[in-house]
Amino acid sequence: MSYDFMAEEVSGEEERHDSWSELPSEVLSLIFSHLFSKQDHFIFGVICKSWKSVTAFRTHRPLPFDFSYRRSPFLMALKGNKYNFFHPTHSSYYLHIPELLDKIILDSKYGWLLVAGTGDEFLSIFFFHPLTKERIDLPDLPFNNYVVGFYSLPTSPECVVVAIETFGCILFTIAITKPGDEDWIDVHLYYDQKRFRYGSRRFFICSTPVFHNGKCYCLDENGNVAVFDPNHIEDSWDFCGKPYSKVSHLSVVQSFIVESDGELLTVFLGNEGEFWILKLNPVTWEWMEVKDLGNKVLYLSNGASWAEKTVFEGMGNRIYLPMLCDNSNTVVFYYLTTLKFHSDGHDFSQKDVFHMKQLHHSTWIEPW
User: Fold this and answer.
1) Beta strands 225-228 and 215-219: pairing type?
2) Does the N-terminal or the C-terminal CB of the chain have fewer CB atoms within 10 Å?
3) Is 73 exposed, middle or buried (0-12, 13-18, 19+ CB in 10 A)?
C-alpha cells in the first residue's frame, strides 16, 4: 500500500483542502517508527494533537504478525506474562505467548526458538516458532547442566541439535540428536592433558555454541575455545589456539562467541564496560584483537548471537547487547567509534555499564 500526500489537482472552482492532522493513525505510526533521534520525536509530537497522540503509544504495542519488513532482529525478553520485543532502533512491542511461560530459551535461528522446560519438565526440549505457533518436540535431554545449539532450519533434514554438558570434574558429555529422532547419541570425554591442556582441569562453557564450516565451537569461562566435528566428536575434539593473554578473565562478566561472514569472533565484556573482540586466524589458529568492525553489527545475548552487515551509514561498528537504558527501556549498544554505550533516539552516552537493565533470560530473534 502506498500513500500520496500531495493534494490532488483542482478543476474549475472545485477546491480541496487536505490536512496533515487527518492522516490515518496507521500511517503516522509507520512514519514515527522510522524516526531515530530524540529531536525528531519531539518535533513529530508538536505538529498537532493527532500526531502527538501517536507518540504517547510508541512503546509496548502489540507485535504485528508480519514484522519481516524490519530486517534487524528483535531482542526478545520475558516480562510478567508476556514477551517484549525490543527493536534496536525503532519501537518495542509485546506478544502473549503462553506456550513459553516458565520456559528457558536456549538458542534462536531463522525465526525459530530452541526451548527447554523448567521444574518437573526441566529435561524437556522443543523447537517453537513464536508467530506461527508451530512446535517440534525433541527427546528429553540426557543431563541437566547444559548449553544447546542447533544448525539449519528445524524443518530441514539437515538440522542437528548439539547439547554440551557445561561442567564435569572427571568427564563431560556431548549429545547429538535431530528432529524426529527418539533419543540422543552420547559421547563421553574424559579430562586428560591432551584434550584439556589450557587453564584448569575443567571446561565450564559459558556461551551458546556456534556452528562454523561444519564444526561446532564452544567458549569456556577461561577464554578457551573448543572445536569438534559433530559426526566424529571423540576424534576431532581440539582447542583453537591459546586464550588471548591481554584479556583479564577475572574481570570478564559476559562472554560470547559468534560467526561473522566466514570468520569466528569471541567477545568479552569487562565489569567496568571494557570490551575485547578477538578474531581467529584460520591458518595459525592464533587470536587477534579487533578494534573496528567496519560496516558490521554484532547482536549478542545468552540465547543467540550473530553478526550482520549494514548498508546504512553510521549504523556499523556497533555491538548490541541484552541491556536496556534504565530511564527509557531502549536497547543499549556499544559504539567502537566512541568507545561508549549509546541508545538510539535518546541522549544516552556513558563508558560504564551502570544504570542499565540486564536482560538475563533473553535472546535475539530474526524476522523470518
Assistant:
1) antiparallel
2) N
3) buried
β-partners of residue 66 are none
3-state secondary structure of 306: strand
* Amino acid occupying residue 122: F
pLDDT at 134: 93
CA distance 203 to 264: 20
Give the per-residue pLDDT at 225: 87
Copy the grid coordinates of residue 357: 537493565
Q: Are 294 and 308 in contact (CB under 8 A)?
A: no
Alpha carbons 149 and 147: distance in angstroms, whole number: 7
- 90 vs 98: CA distance, rounded Å: 25
Cell numbers of 135, please? 512446535
Alpha helices in 223-283 (DSSP H): 233-236
Measured CA to CA, the distance from residue 46 to residue 65 in angstroms comes to 30
Are the CB atoms for 366 and 109 separated by under 8 Å? Answer: yes
Neighbours of 51 (CB within 10 A): 19
Residue 264, classed as helix, strand or coil, is strand
Mean pLDDT taken over the chain: 79
This prediction has a pTM of 0.78
DSSP 310-321: --STT--SEEEE
